[in-house]
Structure formats: C-alpha cells, structure tokens
Amino acid sequence: MNIRFFERLMQEPPKTPQEKYIFFVDSPDLAVNIAYCGFSAQTILDNQQEEYFTADSFILYMRTLDEKLLHGIGTDRIQYVYVLACKKWNSDKIKAYLESATLTCLVEWKLFKGKDYLSRVDRLDDLKQVLQDFFLRVEGPPDPEDSHDIARFHTFNDRGAPNGIKDREIVDFLISRHPMFVVSGTPYLYQSGVYRQDPSGSRTRALICQLVYRELQKSPAIRRVYDLLIDQPSLQQTLTGINLQPRHWVNFRNGYFDFRTWKMVPHDPK
Questions:
Q1: Which helix (H) or strand (E) holds 105?
Q2: How far apart are CA 262 and CA 148, in angstroms?
Q3: 3-state DSSP call for residue 108?
Q4: pLDDT tens-digit profile of 94-139?
Q5: What's the pLDDT score for residue 245?
Q6: Bridge partners, 162 (sequence order)
Q7: Which position has the higher pLDDT, 91 or 66?
C-alpha cells in the first residue's frame, strides 16, 4: 500500500507463500483489496504524493537499501517477488532497476488492465479469483505430498467424534516436515534461510496447533506434545555444534558471501 507499509515489509520475511508476491498497482484502493486477499501490494503513482511512491522515488529508496547492504545492514527484500502490474512505463522503469539488483520480478501490467471494478469492495470475490489464477499459474499445482488430513493425528470415539490426539504422530510429522533443532531446551525453527530462536516456544506450539482440531487445542495437550518434541534426541544440538560454516563465509539474510570465490552461497537447512 503506502511507503511506510513497504518499509516495514522490507524488514521481515513473508509469512505465507502468497505474501511473498508484492503487486505494484496504480490504485491505492486496489492495493488495499489485494492485501485483504492475503497478498502484498504497493501503490505506484505517476506524480509524487507524500504517502506513495512514484517509479523514480521507489528506485531511489531501493538504492538506499543497496548502500546499507554494503555496510552489512541487510533486509529481507530478496525474499519477495515483485509483480509489476502498474502502468507499463512505470513497470519498465522498475523492472530495469530490479534486474540490475538481481531481484526477482514479473511483468504483469496487463493483469488488472481494464478491470477498475476490482478496486471496489463488493468485487473482492472477483479479485480473489484473479489472484488465485495468477498464483496457480506461477507456482503450479500444489504437491500432493505436501497435503495432509489432520484426522490422522487424532483418536475417535464410537460415534466418530474426535476425543484425543496422537502425540507421537504429530511429533514425527513435524520433525519430517519442519527443519529444527533444540539447544538447552530452546527450539530453533528454520525460516527464510536461517534458523530462528523460539525462546517462548510460541511458534513451535503454533505448528502443533495447526495439526489439532480446534476443540482439542487445550493447553495441557499442546504442552504435552511440545515437551515430547523438544525432548527428542535427534533434535539436540550444542552451541559448538552449529554455525560450522567456513570462516571465509559471511552470513547475510539472503545467503552466505564467500570472500574467496566472491559468490553468494544459498542457505540450506542442513
């Protein structure tokens, strides 16, 4: 949406696959509607206004981030895909910069062309369909192996109603699908190229809750699974056993920079 929203966006990784797509559009109302649909959006105007970027002011702002990177101050901008759906001349300007900065962009200036009605609140269903079609076209169909029926993590009574959860099933599933380790009782979860400490355990418990029917998301049950998870021998690490990358690698948010080869090395959960 506006400049302040974009500045915050650059300081944190996308929380969902949809949020990693930032749609650059001409209309503030359309940008708000896109955000309501679960994607990210930014307004690009032809003439400068205090709250919004033009193509030129956006490029100037991004170049300030280039300068910060030279001083070791990184951002999460490489985690995003910049979808240029604003006017063609603005899209062309921004595309030239993004390509020079090796940031991923898609030119989609025809996506909303002639569809001003998508800026209206009463046409959100139409906008959701356009965005879903775009997402499916770019991402491809979902991998069947990534889908799961959470019924497998529950026990049921004679009437078929859920009456409990299978702790071990949940723990085994989380370990197989979510890279993580534990140091001195504190879990670390892999996110956006790095392992992030979860000192309160809230993000880990949120993963557990995703696999449990809402009516069974009781604190004692979630805590029981959490305790079983972080106590698994396969997850235990020590501070001396992590961060064993070569000394000539410097860690940035978008990967390691190898000073010997002068190339970036992607992050890897392993």
A1: strand 105-107
A2: 42
A3: coil
A4: 999 999 988 899 999 889 989 999 999 999 999 999 999 999 888 8
A5: 64
A6: 156
A7: 91
State residue 115 phi and psi, 5-degree precision: -125, 50
* Within-domain flag for 212: yes
Q: Are residues 164 and 198 in the same domain?
A: yes
Please report, as a single letter, which amino acid is at residue 81.
V
Separation of alpha carbons 116 and 102, rounded Å? 32
Q: Is the dihedral of CA 144, 167, 218, 180 positive or negative?
A: negative
Residue 175, SS3?
helix
24 plus 104 within the same structural domain? yes
In a shared domain, residues 17 and 78:
yes
Closest alpha carbon to 84 in 60, 103, 57, 61: 103
The Cα–Cα gap between 270 and 180 comes to: 10
What is the rounded distance in angstroms from the CA atom of residue 197 to the CA atom of residue 181? Answer: 10
Calculate the dihedral angle through the C-alpha atoms of 60, 66, 69, 70, rounding to the nearest 10 degrees.
Answer: -120
Residue 82 placed within a domain: yes
DSSP state of 192: T
pLDDT tens track for 182-224: 998 999 998 766 778 899 898 899 899 989 988 898 889 999 9
Q: Residue 159 sits in which domain range?
A: 148-237
Number of folded domains that form the chain: 2
